[in-house]
Amino acid sequence: MKRQRYIAYVGTYTNGxxxxxxxxxxxxxxxxxxxxxxxxxxxxxxxxxxxxGKYLYSIADEGVAAFRIMPDGLLEHINTAPTGGMRGCALCxxxxxxxxxxxxxxxxxxxxxxxxxxxxxGDITDGIFHKGLGxxxxxxxxxxxxxxxxxxxxxxxxxxxxxxxxxxxxxxxDYEHGKIKKHDIxxxxxxxxxxxxxxxxxxxxxxxxxxxxxxxxxxxxxxxMDEAELQDSVSTIYQDPDRCAPYGLDITExxxxxxxxxxxxxxxxxxxxxxDGDISEICQSKISGEFPKVIKVLPDSDYFVTLNHEQDEIVxxxxxxxxxxxxxxxxxxxxxxxxCIYIHRLQ
Length: 347
Hints:
This protein is an all-beta fold and 347 residues long. It has strands at 6-12, 20-27, 32-40, 47-49, 55-60, 63-69, 75-81, 90-93, 99-103, 109-115, 121-129, 146-151, 157-162, 167-174, 179-187, 194-199, 205-210, 215-220, 229-235, 245-251, 257-263, 267-273, 279-286, 292-297, 303-308, 313-320, 325-328, 333-334, 338-345. Helices cover 0% and strands 54% of the residues. The chain is globular and about 50 Å long. InterPro entries: Cycloisomerase_2 (IPR050282), Haem_d1_sf (IPR011048), Lactonase_7-beta_prop (IPR019405), WD40/YVTN_repeat-like_dom_sf (IPR015943). One of its GO terms (molecular function) is 6-phosphogluconolactonase activity. Belongs to the cycloisomerase 2 family. Pfam families: Lactonase (PF10282).
């Protein structure tokens, strides 16, 4: 049986020696990272791969950069296109790879860009600036700041997480005309500061990571994304909540476990997803690093990594779900200012 190969694309800030996207082969037998190459991109802060597995897209200072994924996993630049706004911080694609959607932290803009048949980024088909002011009881900047974008499981709607307005704005997507239209708004608690959002595998639950509230909000929704109901809100930390800022969020492929990284306290928390969509904590522990900006579950779900931004490293951990603990696996991989990662299975 042919061994499945995985490539890890790691985006890094480029104000130092790093040039952009670090390309690694993921050694699944040892859960190690073997560096293959480095691809120049100006400050890649978010990465995604087309569902057809042929192209990778990255946020860049200039907009969105498109790359062809070669048979060995290396990247070949196709083009870079502007988004119509300031520098983005999040991106996603629809299931049929027709469009790239970009979220802008600095200007609160959601942009929709066409993807051409050759994988290149085409024209901007739509763009909406979020407007208004949030209500802040802390020193958080409460102007519009889109920190995440993701598609609903049925691909009908785009969800734009706005940290400044304490909202998740739901847009209906018109694929034929390349337009997005506001459909509904999920209004979170005052000063919740939502940062990330993922959907459960049951198709009816969504999990929103709230930085200032230091919690995961669990929403139950219907297929029309109308009146999403707050089912529960679960803390991501059991001590020092004033020092904690949850940053990273990921879910296993089978949807059974939810992973969170907490900056400030420098911990990782793992939760079990119950049949009713609620979550219960399995374990929480220090990750022996500074500012775990990203947490990512590896393909077999028994291992995960944290990208420790201030310590310039990626650390791998082995998870023991039955006994409720995780342990570091091997030595950290030194990477300058890592801030995003995408694990891609070679075809």
